[in-house]
Amino acid sequence: MSRPYDSREPIVFVVDDDASICEGICNLLESVGLRAKTFGSTQEFLDNWNEDMPGCLVLDVRLPGITGIEFQEELARSGINIPIIFMTAHGDIPMVRKVMKAGAIEFLTKPFQREELLHGIGQALETDRARRVAWESERSIQTRFQSLTSREREVMNLVTSGMLNKQVAADLCLSEITIKQHRRRVMEKMQADSLADLVRMADKLQRLIQASSNKR
User: Fold this and answer.
1) 152 by DSSP, 3-state: which?
2) How many C-beta atoms lie closer than 10 Å to residue 106's C-beta?
3) Using omega within 30 degrees of 0 as the cis cutoff, is the peptide bond preceding 64 cis?
4) pLDDT tens digits, 177-199
């Protein structure tokens, strides 16, 4: 009897219309302590997908209705950033180049060695973990920035642009003492250890704003 899934632990999602392949991979993964969920189609995977579930996708290239390569493109358009390991019995160099250029972690040719699959999955899970850590950091910075008042945001933007307190005071028509008070609250709310730390946060916020603007 399989143990219940814990959303905090990574899951290896396997999509292949060959039930024997799915079963074999599932047994292998569970034998080394990895959680696995198998699906016979891409739609079945999407119906069960939740972005809060960490993990990676082991995807067959040849599937009924839609190819694995087309599905990789569909996931990218949908903003689903799950690391993918492709597997196929009929691969070629152009195909490998295309999926790897699009961000695939590995391309395995059936029959492959268990070590090859486990190595690829290890890389994929680490990629997903690093991405989620970065995403949590970004979300935390955004939440802290949103806690600032409009005036504190102005002060933060000017201070991190390189202006001195007296220059910020003159620009905002406030006293230097008031600017120092705002600056102290900004440092506290943003949980910045130093001005350099605050500048890094400001740069990251700017990149996030730019990335969001480019998606529109």
Assistant:
1) helix
2) 22
3) no
4) 999 999 999 999 999 999 999 99
Q: pLDDT tens, 26-38?
A: 999 999 999 999 9
**For residues 106 and 14, is the Cβ–Cβ distance under 8 A?**
no
CB 37 within 8 A of CB 13: yes
Q: What is the largest CA-CA distance in the chain?
A: 74
pLDDT digits (tens, 9 = 90+) for 126-179: 999 999 999 999 999 999 999 999 999 999 999 999 999 999 999 999 999 999
6 has a pLDDT exceeding 60? no
Which residues make beta-bridge pairs with 107? 86
Burial of 15 (0-12, 13-18, 19+ CB in 10 A): buried
Range of the domain at 171: 147-215
Find out whether 55 and 13 touch, Cβ atoms under 8 Å.
yes
Share of the chain above pLDDT 70, in %: 94
User: Do 161 and 93 fall into the same domain?
Assistant: no
Same domain membership, residue 160 and residue 128 = no
Query: What is the C-alpha separation between 171 and 163, in angstroms, rounded?
Result: 10
Return the beta strands (E) in 92-182 as ranges.
106-109
> Quick one: 153 and 202 in the same domain?
yes
Instruction: Give residue for tokens 């694995």.
Output: 68
Residue linked to tokens 């990676």: 56
